[in-house]
Hints:
Order of helices and strands: HHHHHHHEEEEEHEHEEEHEEEHEHEEEHE
CATH superfamily of the largest domain: D-amino Acid Aminotransferase, subunit A, domain 2
Strand content: 15-25%
Oligomer: single chain
Number of helices: 13
CATH topology of the largest domain: D-amino Acid Aminotransferase, Chain A, domain 2
CATH class of the largest domain: Alpha Beta
Shape: elongated
Low-confidence stretches: 84-99
Amino acid sequence: MTVHEIDRLCHRVSHDPAFLASLHADPAGVLAGLPLSAGERRDLLAGDVLALHRRGAHPVLLVRLATHRVFGLTPQLYGRRISAPGPLLEVIMTMPDVSPDRVLWRNGEFIPWHEATVHVNAIGHASVSAAFEGVHSYWSPARGQLLGFRFREHMKRLHDSLRLSRLVPAFDPDELVEAAAELLTRVSEPGKDVYVRPWGFAAGLHREQMVAAGAPAEIVIDSWDFTSKLGQGRTCTLAVSSWPRTNHSASPATMKVFSNYHNGRLGNAEARQRGADWPVFINDRGEVTESSGACLAMVRDGVLCFPDLASGVLDSVTRDTMRVLAAEAGIPVQIRRIERTELYLADEVMLLGTAAEVLPATEIDGFPIGSGKQGPVAQELETRYHDLVRGAVTTHEQWLTPVKA
């Protein structure tokens, strides 16, 4: 089987204008020169995308044939032909007709933002297994360019989350890093920070309750401007949620999937009703895990402590960054189980994450924390994090993805 040649052909259709022109002019002649079987040539010339998918070709790549209208395909015709009983029901992609300023990346293509649509029936059960990432890119005044922060680690985690959801992505982490960097080249403006949101979900329409294992994943990368809060002296208040952390034996915390975040949504609503800013979730053993969309750290007797992964926390990229920065600053670090009452007696408690950045807490369940202001450890970490992501230091260049102007 030469399914990889079919995938390679789909890739060339999108990225090689001369090849696309020759395919439009003489499809049979072009296919005759490729290492394909007679049956694969027949299915391609017939535009039989369902047969090609059954041969192993990825439908997210096959849709490029419809987008570029080769072999008589159109997006609408593709949607009808790919339909079949079973896990894969339908994939409908829209070919962009105009090129507005705002674009996003979808399955290997840069398309107008307002054209990036799915059918309303595609958002139900497919959302259960969908995975996502939140990634920051910071403008560096010192370097005069935008710097993506730890793109590789975030894209690897997205890839792993999709695999754990038993979805099949068509792009590897390095390809997603390249796509995100190219997207930022197209959309970013000098002096502005940009938030990058990659996510993947089961392609097509899924009317069955469960998305079947092995379903192909669509991947989208969107972006928008954001305002960093680093260096602004922010603080927050916390409340231990009555909602326990979702048991990671039921839904692994290492999966950054949308369904795991409903737990955080419930905790958020409760915390706000109790007059706090953010929740803290306790696991079924009464141990501290994390907040909503952010990991948690505390300082006791000068030691920076993080809950261990066995407590049921996301393997946070920001947590790993802070662990390294703390060690470089001479701050002792422990990764261990943390009891709830330790938070009440801590010298410092802080939330850490892509969105939270470094957010010290001044109160938890009415107990004041430290001096009621940002503590020295949080301040040191915030300063080092700021200098790192802004490109003011060169200590971890492997974590930075420069974006071409």
